[in-house]
Structures are given as C-alpha cells and as structure tokens.
Amino acid sequence: MARIPIFYYHSIGNIGPETLAANTFRKHLEILKELEFKPITFSQLITGQYDSTHKNVVLTFDDGLIDNYERAFPILQEFCCKATFFIIAGFDKVTRWVNPKTSSWSDYKRQGFTIPFPSMQNHHREELIKYGMEIGSHSMSHRKLNKTPPDHLKKEIFGSKNCLEDSHGIEISSFCFPKGRYNKTVLSIVESAGFKGACTTMPGFYSLSENPFECGRFLIEKPQLFRRILELASSNNPIFENTLTAIRPLLKLKNSYL
Ligand SMILES: [Zn+2]
C-alpha cells in the first residue's frame, strides 16, 4: 500500500463544542474494521516495524487529556486497536478550560471558561503502555515552538523526552509539534534530541519518501469523510493528488489549541 493515513484526535466524549462524541469515534473504528485497516503506532510506522501486506493506519491523540483514557481507551481496547498518545510533559497538574460560547481554550480557569479538560497522570499512561499503546511527546508546555527562543527550545524538546522517559522507563521516539508550529531550527533540535519522527497538523498521507519529521495527519469528524480518506489511501487513482488538494479546505482546523 502506497499511502498510510495518520488521523489525529484531541478530546473524546467530553461535553461542549470542542470534543468528538464517543459514538462518532466508535463509528470510525467500525469503519476501520469493515475496511480491514490495521492500526499501528506512529513509531512502528516511522521505524518500518509493521506488516506492509496489511492496510495500515495510525491513530494519534494530542494533549494527553484524561478523556482519552476514560472514553477513547476502552473503545480502542474493544476493537483491539493500538494508538499513539502525545503528552504535554509539564501539564500533569494543569486542567484546561473551554469557553463554550467562543470555543476557545484557557490553561487556567477564568470567567466564561466553564468546561474542564483535566490531564492524564502517570498511572493512566502506565496502563496505556501496558496495553501496547505508544506515548509520545507534545513538548513541555504546549507553546508555539516556532516562536520559542532557541535556548528554551531545548527545555521543551529534550526536557519533555527526558521527563517522560524518566517517568515511564521507556524510550520516547515520537514527537508532535504543538499547534502544528515549527521551523528548521525546531526540526533540527527534535532530530538531535533522538526522536525518530514527528507529526504536523498538515493534512496528507504518510509515504516512505516523506521526511519522517514532517508527517501529515488528518483531523476528521464526519464518519463519511473518514471512510473517504481510507478509500483514497487504498486507491492508486492517478487523480489522487488533485483530490487531496480539493478536500484540503474541508479539513481546515477550526481548533487553534491543537
Ligand atoms: Zn496540542
């Protein structure tokens, strides 16, 4: 198979506008099963540790929210699906809040921000790891790395890797740019920290010719569109690139917090 889709999620099954309904997420996994896609982790993908005779797919979750553990993890287990969870290493004690009127986010509680999004803790992540899920880094504090001074970049990138490795006693191989922001300096520091690949928020399929540090992903809600992306991945249609260009506006991020 030439193209492997990487999907990304954020909150699952919370209330308000900034979450994906648990039933919709379940529908995604039903479609994967129906179309015989096999979910692998992001590090399996970038290190080539997967069976290329299967139709493979990667499911990723950004921000390490506790609803990923409480709502998505049981559904992933039910469908025997692996996934990668990108954790903000310095946010264990941080609960984020959403303003349902503006769909905006805050890293602390303030007026109008009424929906809490607590973070996973070490023991939650340990359970994910025990089940074969991957833990990756989403920086220390979720700031835009392209706007971060070089001396602080090392804390965000090396620091988050060391922090998660110390907490869990495993190698952390995968990185995900907060809010999809990066530049050449960020890329070179991520590579020199020993990560093996990184995820962006640009839509696009993974292919072997791609730089593993700039992997595209799809942010999809509607099951029909989710199905269409999978069908495109399996197809050798020569007009594929045009199709992808055509659907890009549909995939535009509405959520600046990712
Ligand atoms: Zn994020």
List the helices and strands and how they pair.
Elements: E1 6-9, H1 22-34, E2 37-40, H2 42-47, E3 55-62, H3 66-78, E4 84-87, E5 96-99, E6 104-106, E7 115-117, H4 122-130, E8 134-137, H5 150-168, E9 174-176, H6 184-192, E10 197-199, H7 223-234, H8 240-247
Parallel strand pairs: 1-3, 2-3, 3-4, 4-8, 9-10
Antiparallel strand pairs: 5-6, 5-7
Helix pairs in contact: 1-3, 1-7, 5-6
The protein binds zinc ion.
Report on the architecture of this protein.
It is a single chain. The longest helix is centred in the middle third of the chain and has 19 residues, at 150-168. This protein has a single domain, classed as Glycoside hydrolase/deacetylase (TIM Barrel). The model has no long low-confidence stretch (mean pLDDT 92). It contains eight helices and ten strands. It has helices spanning 22-34, 42-47, 66-78, 122-130, 150-168, 184-192, 223-234, 240-247; strands at 6-9, 37-40, 55-62, 84-87, 96-99, 104-106, 115-117, 134-137, 174-176, 197-199. The two termini are 29 Å apart. By secondary structure, the protein is an alpha/beta fold. Strands 1, 2, 3, 4 and 8 form a five-stranded parallel sheet that branches. A three-stranded antiparallel sheet has the order 6-5-7, with no helix packed on it. The chain has a two-stranded parallel ribbon with strand order 9-10. Zinc ion binds next to loops.
